[in-house]
Write a structure and sequence with these properties.
By secondary structure, this protein is α+β, with helices and mostly antiparallel strands. It is built from 19 helices and 22 strands. Helices cover 36% and strands 20% of the residues. This is Molecular chaperone HtpG.
Length: 628
């Protein structure tokens, strides 16, 4: 038997580890299973190169709960340690920088970046244990060793009669951590952190149905056998080559990642790079509504198949955090508890690579099956449009596959759109005017008027469309977007020919004065326009600039000077060539004149979806009365 002191001059090292090193006590299990996995994989390597003359076999890691004894066991069949190795790796190296560590981190926040430098992973056990034992037998022909420590610098190291290769860690769970003896708790941690570890992990047993014998009769009762309950998938899809996977394999893995997700993903992107950094993974495009408030944090970050976090901000470009899937990289710099990213040049490189890979995949999907891509457009557009606004590198490539649909269900790329509209929708100043609607039903009458002129109208209904078209206008000379209800169609696309008003200037002045006494001036600006006599007599429009700035402010376009809080303002466009305009002028009775104007205004509001509540109720009653 031997005993001694761990090589550390500060007595309270363990409480400091517990207090400062880890933000989350539960990760002790992840650390210890990671150590067991390393020991097993190292043995595999040594046997493969002939440096370990033992049978590797089919090793597994086992987790056992002894609730009565208040103990938790982590058992592996890896390379094990000799007594000298325990002395070296557990007692010396782990604390070679302890004083430095204490001095540097005693006043800092929790989660300091030291695990990789000081080998403190094993000591995370003391976060939940009042005493820890290591029972280990090396693959070398040497006696087993038994190390014990109660959380003070004191330890004992004695021989043990263990005959099987590998290491068993025994945690004597502290009174304030007894929930780690609950099967449901451990099962949850294993599922969270170790679901895809490369070595099978056993946690108890389960009953498995035996195959029904061919000669079994109708009264046959299913028989069961007890088998190991393996909680992980050691060979997840992202560790395989894309050539070895079929579409169903990707879908099956998606269901494994998200068992409560019942919709199939639209498509996936398999990441696989080994230079200038190592990174593998699979990203899935789920069906997404046109909503920026989509739940993020659905991409899981792993390091050598060990779960780290589902907060991948920094590694994955922000616009792709709305996707789902897995990224695994040993080159991502993490802090001591492997819970948070540290600043590093590789992170930006990885982010740029993912952006490029996604762009290339989208272009490939577009080129290979444009029809299928168009069918999926409404489910993916919010991600791509957000990417164009937030990532310059993505914006550069987006022209090859980002689509602009029309109200008729046709799809154009920007280049195709310019070519298709050039002849008919270029105004007298040489500007190409792209008309669009944000709501096909609400703006139907305006769309209809544009179509009668032979104009194409896009359907752009995402919440960030105002930001997007602002960027497209700034990057494309002589291109402007106008919502179809922003003004009368002849003013939206102004041609050389102009309509002549039937009313004289004096009559127009008189008509405008009458209208302004009835129409609420705090909401509407009256405009008189000479239009085709068949056009609507009253039309409500909302100025493109003000509406767009207001929308951008409301959807996070900071710097819009609070425009999102401005009251709604509209133009009331009155057709001076309409019969209604003449009738209003010729009606002598003030009540009758006001009634005409109010009815026409309500009809115009109704066509824009602006007639609501008490006004709508009053309008309906008034019109029913005319039927009597």
């Amino acid at each position: 038997m031997s005993s001694g002191k761990i090589n550390v001059s500060v007595e309270n090292i363990f409480p400091l580890i517990k207090k400062f090193l880890y933000s989350d006590h539960e990760i002790f299990l992840r650390e210890l299973i990671s150590n067991a996995t390393d020991a097993t994989l190292k043995l595999k390597h040594l046997t493969s190169i002939g440096e370990a003359s033992v049978e590797y076999g089919n090793p597994k890691i086992e987790i056992k709960i002894d609730k009565e004894g208040k103990k938790l066991h982590i058992i592996d069949q890896g390379l094990g340690m000799t007594s000298d190795e325990v002395e070296k790796y557990i007692n010396q190296i782990a604390f070679s920088g302890a004083e430095e560590f204490l001095e540097k981190y005693k006043d800092s926040a929790k989660d300091s970046g030291v695990i990789g430098h000081f080998g403190l992973g094993f000591y995370s056990a003391f976060m939940v244990a009042s005493k820890v034992e290591i029972i280990t037998k090396s693959f070398k022909d040497e006696p087993a060793a038994h190390w014990t420590c109660d959380g003070s610098p004191e330890f004992t190291l004695v021989p043990h009669d263990k005959t099987e290769r590998g290491t068993e860690i025994v945690l004597h769970i502290a009174e304030d951590s007894l929930d780690f003896l609950e099967e449901s708790k451990i099962n949850g941690l294993l599922s969270k952190y170790n679901k895809f570890m490369p070595i099978p992990i056993k946690f108890g047993t389960k009953q498995e149905a035996l195959p029904k014998p061919e000669d079994a009769g109708d009264d046959y009762k299913t028989e069961y056998k007890e088998v190991d309950n393996i909680i992980n998938n050691p060979n997840p899809a992202w560790t395989k080559q894309p050539a070895d996977l079929k579409e169903e394999d990707y879908k099956s893995f998606y269901r494994e990642l998200y068992p409560m997700q019942f919709e199939e993903p639209l498509f996936n992107i398999h990441l696989n790079v080994d230079y200038p950094f190592n990174l593998t993974g699979i990203l899935y495009f789920p069906k997404l509504a046109s909503d920026l408030q989509i739940q993020k944090d659905k991409i899981q970050l792993y390091q050598n198949q060990v779960f780290v976090t589902d907060n991948v901000e920094g590694i994955v470009p922000e616009f792709l955090t709305m996707l789902k899937g897995v990224i695994d990289s040993p080159d991502i710099p993490l802090n001591v508890s492997r819970s948070y990213l540290q600043a590093d040049g590789n992170v930006k490189k990885i982010s740029n690579y993912i952006t490029r890979k996604v762009s290339d995949k989208l272009k490939s999907l577009f080129n290979e099956s444009r029809e299928d891509f168009e069918k999926k457009w409404n489910d993916i557009k919010i991600v791509l449009e957000y990417g164009m606004l937030s990532e310059a590198k993505f914006y550069e490539k987006a022209g090859d596959f980002v689509l602009y649909p029309t109200t008729e269900g046709k799809y154009y790329t920007l280049a195709e759109l310019k070519e298709a509209l050039a002849t008919n929708q270029t105004d007298k100043d040489g500007k190409l005017v792209v008309l669009y609607a944000s709501n096909k039903d609400a703006q139907h009458s305006y769309i209809d008027i544009a179509k009668e002129k032979g104009y194409e109208v896009l359907l752009l209904d995402s919440p960030i469309v105002s930001h997007l078209i602002q960027k497209l206008e700034s990057d494309n000379e002589n291109l402007t977007f106008a919502r179809v209800d922003a003004d009368h169609i002849d003013k939206l696309i102004s041609k050389e020919e102009t309509q002549i008003s039937k009313l004289s200037d004096e009559e127009k002045e008189k008509l405008k004065g009458v209208l302004e006494t009835i129409v609420p001036k705090e909401t509407y600006t009256v405009q008189l326009e000479a239009m085709d006599s068949k056009s609507a007599p009253f039309m409500i429009t909302q100025p493109e600039f003000m509406r767009r700035m207001k929308e951008m402010s409301q959807s996070g376009g900071g710097g819009m000077f609070g425009m999102g809080n401005l009251p709604e303002m509209y133009n009331l466009v009155v057709n001076t060539n309409s019969e209604l305009a003449t009738s209003i002028l010729n009606t002598e009775a003030e009540d009758a004149k006001a009634s005409l104007i109010k009815q026409a205004l309500d009809l115009a509001k109704l066509s824009q979806g602006l007639l609501k509540g008490e006004e709508l109720t009053s309008f309906v009653k008034r019109n029913f009365e005319t039927l009597k």
